[in-house]
């Protein structure tokens, strides 16, 4: 890139912006004929590049005024372990691997029920103005505060109470995330012997790797990870044989409830095992597989150039969709969290990454750039969900309560919405992917797996490989979800022990087995309960848990952006306040609107309280309301509705208390003439010992 | 950017290891030798275990995204 100051240097960027705008125009305006997926890819990539070149540079130079001569925590505290000045490309990989997970893959798939257009537009606009800004700002703030965590920074800048509330919010989010991730696994593995076999096989494979890295050839990650991947692929092949054998298939076929109990038991056992045995090796596998799959998917889309079969906009934008209920505003912005803006990233951008940053000017590339790539992953997920037949998409994702559970009934119901599909076609897809049914597989993972399989089996050699790639995609998602469940339960256990330790100090001891078991059991019970209710409640599941997850995740992003806004005021940079204030306000409006609608909407399909009321009244009148089949199920629905309502109220309380403290601190700082932020003092690069 | 493929391979290996939370061992040894020559340097095996424990075992381990 030349560094001349002539205006001509902007010309290529102008051309790129024009290309992006035109591609987006094609995506948005072409109706009645199919659109090639490449248009979406070109539009998003061109706009990301332009946003990176101009908007992130503006934020770096004017808003944050990144200083290349300022020593970063990695330089000041360099210990070769936690604090290491790291090459920016290597750090980019570390940061990206930490932020990319199931979220950006599942959200867009669920949002595809409104058509690909609303989700794609939100992904692009959301990441440029909110998501990437949040990651960048938090990384910057943490780097200037010796790599402190989000909770610590909120406490320092806004006070003790605000900090504690934010931490409590983080714990709630963790529980919801674990429940919703586990639910995705349950939905993908129920009645699927092939899937269950391959996922179970990961446990001995991980143990083998763990023992190898611990005792046989300590620390040799590369060679044994390669062996692990080969064994995984072999287990997918073997899973196919298992599923084809009537006796073995029966042994590995489980209902959703059975898999739920297995997961809960697994979560408990795995969280108290030594980390090197299962958690660490499986994390290695899932990380490498994740990066590999993302790259393969990108290449696959570029090579096959699939047509998008989903319409740009479906009739379900009005809120009547079968996958989840709710109107475009605010629920689209809740459903697609990761990929557009994800509060969880604030925890990572204030975790290990700032301790590895070699120079703070690289925060732009890693914070803003890393999130752009994550958004691109979400765009690919949207493409994968849109290349499959819409009829298949809706048959897979509609709950039995809406479309029935018989293949003929489902095909008729989905066709009546205008997405023509025959029962034979649905069965053919199930046969292609090696499953006996594809009905009621909400949760995003199976749909995405069908999409990925459709794209990959065109690119990679071999005949009839659809089934193999479907189960590969399921395995790949299950792998990192199980890792998240495992790691999340551990982190949640420490949080819980810390929280309870305030009352019973003995519980805080992480060395004591009793306290550990109690903390772990408490944490597993919390997410396990939410998971269980999502599986057994005839009306529960993804359609109730995912909005809760989205609300909590966006709420955390709101907190991070409010922190950014407060610090900008304290730094006396009020004229650039809008950079963090506008996305913060947008997230507050979306989460509050979504929270209040979920609470108070008079329609029982949307509002938790209305649902509880409807079933309570029916109970009092001695009636049974479908899909509940017994009084117990009726009571279950009522109880769950109240649980979900309580969680929603808690989220709203958390976000409004942080808002209160943000406004109070912000106004106080406005009245001061000097800077009042708590940055660590300047130290020149090269000036440290 | 890269002079030769060997260097590229080294970078990719470092990137892959850091993705799973394993910083560069050579860099650690060099750091210890330059700045703390009086302190003992962990062997690669000990370094590997220490880093694994730090990433997953402690309460402050970095959470991964959804």
UniProtKB/TrEMBL annotation, chain A:
Recorded topology in the membrane: Multi-pass membrane protein
Record field: transmembrane: 12-30, 36-55, 96-116, 122-141, 161-186, 192-212, 224-244, 259-280, 287-308, 328-353, 365-387, 468-485, 513-532, 544-569, 576-597, 641-663
Alphabetized UniProt keyword annotations: Cell membrane, Membrane, Transmembrane, Transmembrane helix, Transport
Entry keyword annotation includes Membrane: yes
Keyword Nucleotidyltransferase applies: no
Domain CstA N-terminal: 36-594
One Pfam short name: CstA
UniProt-annotated location(s): Cell membrane
Family, similarity comment: Belongs to the peptide transporter carbon starvation (CstA) (TC 2.A.114) family.
Protein name: Carbon starvation protein A
Biological source species: Pseudomonas typographi
Automatic annotation (TrEMBL), chain B:
Species of origin: Pseudomonas typographi
InterPro entries documented for this protein: Sel_put
The protein, known as: YbdD/YjiX family protein
